[in-house]
Protein: Class I SAM-dependent methyltransferase
Organism: Azospirillum endophyticum
Amino acid sequence: MNAIVPTPQLAVLRRQTDPRLEWLCAQIARNRFLPVPPPELHFIGDGDFRAIGAEFLRNFVRLGGLRPDHKVLEIGCGVGRMALPLTQYLDSSYDGIDIVLDGIRWCASTITPAYPEFRFHHLDIANGLYNPDGRIEGETATLPFKAGSYDFVILTSVVTHLRTADTERYAAEIARVLKPGGRCFLSLFLADTTARAGIAKGTARPPFRDGAGVELLADPEHPNAAVAYDEQFLLGRFAAHGLHACRAVMRGHWSGQREAENFQDLLVLEKGTAS
């Protein structure tokens, strides 16, 4: 389940896309009435805030199988770039958590009053890049939600800033809070043979350094800045918690070795019914 999605399959995916979803995503991308956080809160990356959110909504539905009646948890919700498009799609509820308090405050004061089923929670987990003074170590963190509460969990560019022990802990917690048959959608850097070739040639962005370990770091002095994982290792760690890839990885162009629609790799995991 870890081969690149070939161009003919991409064409099939596009043909199968619900035109209503395409209309909705187009409306969201250009809806100037959807709020945008102030510039000082843009700690989540560059690009058009609304357009990127709309594109990920398309991916959640088209690739991940998200439905309007799904209960959603987003880990690393930032300043609501994914939450805001979801307000226009979900009929159920959404919980977002993040380690950056200012982002949670903005979401709670801007989104929740208009959409009460969208709730935001601060979790003070330490992270060398985003929350160096956090009180909770990532490898011991527990998500404040009951087991089997969610149909769909989202992590966009979260594992890209986690070391192995923290990633392992999140894998266990995601498996715990997902319902049997529930899915987890991730964007991340997966180092397979092709990606490692790009890293070796210096075409990868970020410029990861390859080595003998399962983590590849872009900046060893600031390890949380950007982390890629050996693909087989990471899939194996999630599988150990009952989370298995349910479709081919949608490859990104970050390594400079592929043509792709997206920058990072997109991975969809499903919790087995026996977990």
About this structure: The longest strand covers residues 178-188. The chain has eight helices and ten strands. The mean pLDDT is 91.
